[in-house]
Design goal:
Layout: H1 13-25, H2 29-51, H3 54-71, H4 82-116, H5 122-140, H6 145-155, H7 160-167, H8 171-188
Helix pairs in contact: 1-2, 2-3, 2-4, 3-4, 6-8, 7-8
Length: 189
């Protein structure tokens, strides 16, 4: 399919997004790649403004593009521009993620408050801590060096994007290492 060049006279960015969305609706994978390349930075920026956390915003942006691919037929140019439709999807998904994260924090806090009311046996807790550290150390020893370093950095408070930058590897590689390492740890424990 032929696409109008974005820098061609008379082609504004709003028409460009709508045209790309129509091409994607017709199954054009190159149009989807172009759509992603041209509009993902704006969508990521929107998600970062809502979520603040870049790693969560990157995940939301990927989810939105998957949603676009799967539901592009629901785009109606009569109701608005292509870029506004995509940014609305991104904004809604980011707000949903904020609500989900807040709900999880509230739930964890409620559960934590219930647990605080119980008396704590310091000796038993210390013994459990020593035993748990031994189990964790043994499980960590089953991981490859790259998995262990990615997981250690994540549990030290680094985001996956920061880990990728620190280790000099792509973000997807970090996500794979953490996911595979956590799966291996579950089997080892």
């Amino acid at each position: 399919m032929l696409h109008a060049r974005p820098d061609a006279p008379g082609v504004d960015k709003l028409d460009r997004a709508a045209q790309l969305l129509r091409d994607v609706a017709n199954g054009d994978q190159r149009a989807f790649a172009t759509l992603y390349d041209e509009y993902s930075p704006r969508m990521l920026g929107m998600a970062i403004r809502v979520l603040v956390d870049r790693s969560l915003a990157e995940d939301v942006t990927q989810e939105v593009f998957l949603e676009i691919w799967q539901h592009v037929a629901s785009f109606d140019p009569a109701k608005g521009s292509g870029i506004n439709w995509m940014l609305t999807l991104a904004r809604r998904r980011a707000i949903d993620r904020v609500r989900s994260e807040q709900s999880a924090r509230d739930r964890d806090e409620r559960i934590g408050m219930r647990e605080i009311t119980h008396e704590i046996d310091d000796t038993a807790e210390a013994a459990e801590g020593i035993e748990l550290r031994a189990i964790v150390a043994k499980a960590l020893a089953t991981l490859s060096d790259v998995q262990r370093s990615a997981i250690s950095l994540q549990y030290s408070g680094y985001t996956q994007s920061e880990i990728a930058e620190r280790l000099g590897v792509p973000l997807g590689t970090v996500k794979t290492r953490v996911r595979d390492g956590m799966a291996q740890l579950r089997l080892a424990v």
